[in-house]
Amino acid sequence: MIKIAADSQIPNLEIKLSEHFHAEYTLQHFSSNQLTSRDLKDVDALLVRSTTQVDEVLCGESQLQYVGSATAGINHLDTKYLDNQNIAWSHAPGCNAASVTHYVMAAIGELIQEGLFNVRQSVGIIGYGNIGKKLYQLLSALNVEVYAHDPFLKDLFLVEMDKILTCDLITIHVPYSQEGAHPTRELINQSHAKDLKDKILINTSRGGVVSEALVKESQDLIYVADVWLDEPTPSPAMIQKAFISTPHIGGYSIEGKLNGTSIIVNECARVFKCFKATSSTENHLINWPHGLENIVRDMHGYGFPLAIFMSELDLRVVSDTFKSISENELAGRFKDLRINHAPRHDFNTYSYEGIIELDESINLGFFNSLNAKYLK
């Protein structure tokens, strides 16, 4: 009997376990803010999201054989400790790449609508991984001047950081790290103050990647942030300083969460050698139903289809709600806003056939009346 403990916010888990496990198992759910080491004493597998810190304090008295995080990042996992204890672990890289891509495109849509950015300006992408690649393709299809930088890759079209810093809008898609050849802790810092004068900076990676001192002291930087230092109690001053502030919901789409569930259930079944005969050991992400190449084709020549991204994710509403929270309620409300984030689909679940026929001056109200026709 495999005993599994899982975060109650991991969706579709019972279905995926029944699909892939041939061994007997039990499943107990927990709330991330209530889990203690006592709860894990006889647990074999622990399935978490980024809200659970997995380390010796939590796992020191357990018999865990596997830890799976249904998230792209691993900053909440003490992987050195897990490795030293021979506890297998995995996460779900790329599971919410389309979701975060959608967030950035919705943010750009807000900026365009406010007159703070236009499609004749340039975009610089830091980090050319799962998210960076999708953003690059979409922005290129919209004829936006776009550049990408990634020191770990050697693609000929990638540019140096100096070129990125000349762009009008910079968006960051890197993991958080303090060691190695290219640490990302305060990757953007006070030394870049002059480079970022009258620029836009979007951070959906990790709070520590951008210096808070830089943002607080800047008088002419437009900052869009979904991630913060000291979550779930970020600096109220930082929340108010940002043009758009959201409580780490960039990857919280329906498809992003379902992808994460599928990946860690597959890996859990592999670790315990209990795959059903009909199951695959491969980690399949939910595909772009209509193909990225088709979406890119249909977007070519279009100015910027604001409503495509903004109708499914209204960042202004989310930001206004987040900014209205009082300091003494911040920790609880931060978690509540994440848990109760309105269900949303990634933009790539829709068909864009015929979208370029829409007038470039389209507005949200007009687009909503056309949803049934164009969003099939």
Walkthrough of the structure:
The chain is an alpha/beta fold and 376 residues long. The protein folds into two domains: 2-91, 3-Layer(aba) Sandwich (Rossmann fold), CATH 3.40.50.720; 97-249 and 293-369, NAD(P)-binding Rossmann-like Domain (Rossmann fold), CATH 3.40.50.720. It has 14 helices and eleven strands. Strands 7-6-8-9-10-11 form a six-stranded parallel β-sheet. The longest helix is centred in the last third of the chain and has 18 residues, at 254-271. Residues 284-289 and 356-376 have low confidence and may be disordered.
Brief summary of the model shown:
The chain is of the alpha/beta class. 33% of the residues lie in helices and 12% in strands. It has helices spanning 13-20, 56-59, 79-84, 97-113, 130-141, 161-164, 212-217, 236-241, 254-271, 292-299, 306-310, 315-323, 330-339, 364-374; strands at 2-7, 25-30, 45-48, 66-69, 88-90, 122-126, 145-149, 169-172, 200-203, 222-225, 244-245.
Topology:
Elements (H helix, E strand, L loop, with lengths): L1 E6 L5 H8 L4 E6 L14 E4 L7 H4 L6 E4 L9 H6 L3 E3 L6 H17 L8 E5 L3 H12 L3 E5 L11 H4 L4 E4 L27 E4 L8 H6 L4 E4 L10 H6 L2 E2 L8 H18 L20 H8 L6 H5 L4 H9 L6 H10 L24 H11 L2
Parallel strand pairs: 1-2, 1-3, 3-4, 4-5, 6-7, 6-8, 8-9, 9-10, 10-11
Supply the key terms:
376 residues, alpha/beta, Rossmann fold, 2 domains, six-stranded parallel beta sheet, five-stranded parallel beta sheet, 11 strands, 33% helix, globular, disordered C terminus
